[in-house]
Design goal:
With about 130 residues, this protein is mainly α. Helices cover about 80% and strands about 0% of the residues. It has 5 helices and no strands.
């Protein structure tokens, strides 16, 4: 959960930028759609973290099952969330789709940069004191 919370925390400052871009390109419907898309992405990341961390405490086999089937489940939930609103008057499909794809990828690549710094401290840069303690 620490990694997903870190991703959401790092993503929050960019939400206004996403909403302004959506407003410029698609108007108020774009803002609503982009906001909905960002909420789906954040919920998806937090759900993934919760599922994996819960399964990891139980067994390795369950962890592998949660990774595979959890992905399929979350893909289904994202699809259901989009299909539930696809005909709503406030939905701009391109804004929603672009937001879902770009936000997922941007957060994953952004966090990859921090995780690759040290696998011992995922999502967080270790202080010199913590590094020397090992």
């Amino acid at each position: 959960p620490m990694l997903a919370k870190d991703m959401v925390r790092r993503g929050l400052p960019f939400v206004p930028v996403v909403l302004v871009l959506a407003a410029l390109l698609w108007g108020t419907d774009g803002v609503a759609s982009a906001g909905y898309g960002v909420a789906i992405v954040f919920a998806n990341l937090l759900l993934a973290a919760w599922m994996l961390s819960t399964a990891a405490r139980i067994s390795y086999g369950l962890l592998m099952g949660a990774a595979l089937f959890g992905f399929l489940l979350r893909l289904g939930l994202v699809s259901a969330a989009v299909l539930a609103v696809k005909d709503a008057g406030w939905v701009e499909p391109v804004a929603l789709g672009v937001t879902l794809i770009v936000t997922h990828l941007a957060l994953l690549f952004w966090e990859l940069r921090y995780v690759s710094i040290s696998l011992a401290y995922p999502g967080l840069k270790p202080t010199p004191k913590e590094t020397n303690a090992r």
